[in-house]
Amino acid sequence: MSPRRGGGRGPEMVPPAQPRSYYGLPVIATPVWKPEVPWYFFAGGMAGAAAPLAAAARAAGNVPLARRASAIALAGTVVSPVLLIADLGRPERFHHMLRVFKPSSPMNVGSWVLSAFGATSSLSAGWQLFGLVPRAVGAPAAAGAGVLGPVLSTYTAVLIANTAVPVWHEARRELPFVFAGSSLASAGGACVALTPPAHAAPARVMAVAGALTELAADLRMERRLDPVLRRSYASGAPRALHLAARACAVGGAGLVAGLGGRSRAAAVGGGAALVAAAALQRWAIFRAGIASARDPEQTVAPQRARTAGTNGQLTNHPSG
Amino acid sequence: MTEFELQTTSYGAAARPRVGFFTDTSLCIGCKACEIACKEYNGVPDDGQDFTAMSLDNTKTLDANTWRHVAFVEQRVKLDDLVVEASLPAEVGVHDDPVEGLRWLMASDVCKHCTHAACLEVCPTGALFRTEFGTVVVQEDVCNGCGYCVPACPFGVLDQRKGDGRVWKCTLCYDRLKGDQEPACAKACPTNSIQFGELDDLRAHAARRVAELHERGESSAQLYLADEDNGIGGAGAFFLLLDDPEVYGLPPDPVDTSRDLGQAWRAAGAAAAAMLGVVAGAVAWGSRR
After folding, report:
1. Mean pLDDT of chain A
2. Which of B125, B156, B219 lies at the smallest CB-CB distance from A318?
3. Distance, CA of B13 to CA of B33 (rounded, Å)
4. Which residues 168-197 of A are in CB contact (within 8 Å) with B?
5. Residue B89 above 70 pLDDT?
6. Sign of CA dihedral B279, B280, B283, B288
7. The complex's ipTM?
8. What is the pLDDT of residues B104-132, one digit of tens each?
């Protein structure tokens, strides 16, 4: 049997540069979340950004835009619980999420936020789209959904950052901004695509600002990650998804900003590209997390670097 | 222990002294009696028959159906570093290569029952809870299989059981504890490598044991997670290892992810506020004539 990577050193030797591992097996467990989860991050994020646009556009008197934004928020609010429940190992127990209120669990907080968002955005849509709900109820509901929406868009970043997965946990300060920008870009992009250009100016501004935020936060995240962790985005599916997300964001923003006000075709193409960028971005981040969890070096090397300065105190290392 | 006591105060008079495992791997002979006793006693399903061909370890890792896992590490080491060599007569050839020897490290891994348990903190349903013994247990009638605890654990202990959907892990034989019995793995261990008891007693014993080994020249012996000065605030299950933790597949400096939750929420709060600002600005600017 050939020796393992870096295996076999006496206690007196200098620690090897290459972190050691147990036959290359992962240290932490790989997330068991199914594809429903990144799709939820996308759908919930888009709905969360559409809700404040629906409220603000209506307040500004732009009814065509407000109605479309409200429809997007409603669609997201219908699809999201379906995706989340489908991901559960015991879907029939979905309501156990709401048997406690537990601030230490972002998923529990998110379940409450999604419930409240579902109620308010449905009432808002009932007023704006179907005329089934009186304005006295619909308008405050729209405002409520508008405030809850951004929380819905960003808590999912907190959720994945609050794990032992190195590439997620160490990006905890940047991930919420990536999710925020990506949510704005997708909701703005969808509204640009669905709304006549004459009414879509606020959506265009939102879409382009969102894409720029997404790109800036994404670049900042990549730059600040430890080089060992950055590897998660450097090969295979995460790399392809990440590059495609950036290309779609740049292309979509350019198209919307340049031609979106004049050409409906450009608005539809650019808006769709921004929606695609958001989906690709969530998938890139999701798959990078899987790759990071499977790589024992990403778990061990940063921890080793941390303990190096403490004279081995944390592990009571004998040779000190 | 003061910080820990905060977590069991809700039990009032029913709270019991914190118990745990001290796994002294210098005594482990790799017999896997612990793996089997655990499976038998707890009715843990079959994990399949894998042949890893990497060592005598065909279980690989802790998961939903493996709550005790015996690691086998085969290392090439210089004979000079092997304490055993000193006791061998000169004519005994340990290995053909005069400068290289082989050693086996064996270690029985288990859930650490952390003081600051990430799994318990992130669980959205409250299925994971702290028992009156200070251990961490999943309530199988509450867990809905959301899977959040799986990547939250810094040790990769928790796992979703296929075909069942719920998450399972070591209970430190909660039912046996209630009946004043020691956990099945500790009961079955033939060399007393797995020692069960009150945590304070185990820690004192472990300190004596590692000092004794150092005295005997086993300078690589080290305690892992024995004190509270680490990222999980101390473990209910701690270890004496003969090499660095990562060699056994253990993280060298595990951290409860919830320690940094405030940073993530602050960033999300700023990002959410920025979203509202962008929307307000976009509507104001886009609506000007």
Report:
1. 92
2. B219
3. 36
4. 169, 172-177, 179-180, 183-184, 188
5. no
6. negative
7. 0.91
8. 999 999 999 999 999 999 999 999 999 99
Looking at residue B51, its pLDDT comes to: 87
Residue of A nearest to B251 (CA): A300
Structure tokens at A125: 């849509």
d(CA B170, CA B149): 14
Residue with structure tokens 């612990």?
B34
Residue written as token pair 């127990």 = A93
Q: Tell me which residue has tokens 């946990």.
A: A169
Q: Tell me, what amino acid is at B211?
A: A
Band the pLDDT of A313: cuts 50, 70, 90. very low
What are the two backbone dihedrals, phi and then psi, of residue A87, each rounded to the nearest 5 degrees? -75, -20
Size (chain B), residues: 289
Write out the DSSP string of A7-45.
Answer: ----TTSPPPSSPP-STT--SSPPP---THHHHHHHHHH
Single out the residue of B108, B73, B250, B96 nearest to residue A1, CA to CA.
B73
Helices (H) and strands (E) counted in chain B, each on its own, are 8, 10
- The answer to whether A65 and A199 are in contact (CB under 8 A) is yes
What's the pTM value of the predicted model, to 2 decimals?
Answer: 0.92
What residue has token string 């090969």?
A235
- Residue A137 tokens read as 């109820």
Q: Give the number of other CB atoms < 10 A from CB of residue A101.
A: 11
Are A180 and A278 contacting, i.e. CB atoms less than 8 angstroms apart?
no
Chain A, residues 11-30, CB within 8 A of chain B, namely 11-12, 19-23, 25-30
The percent of chain A in helix, strand and coil, each rounded to the nearest 5, is 75, 0, 25
Residue A2, Ramachandran bin (φ over 0: left; ψ between -120 and 50: alpha; else beta)? beta
Check pLDDT > 50 for residue A202. yes
Gap between the terminal Cα atoms of chain B: 67
**Tokens at B3, concatenated:** 């910080």
| Least Cα separation, residue B68 to chain A (angstroms) | 15
Q: Are A82 and A67 in contact (CB under 8 A)?
A: no
**Cα angle for residues B155, B268, A99 (degrees, 5° grid):** 65
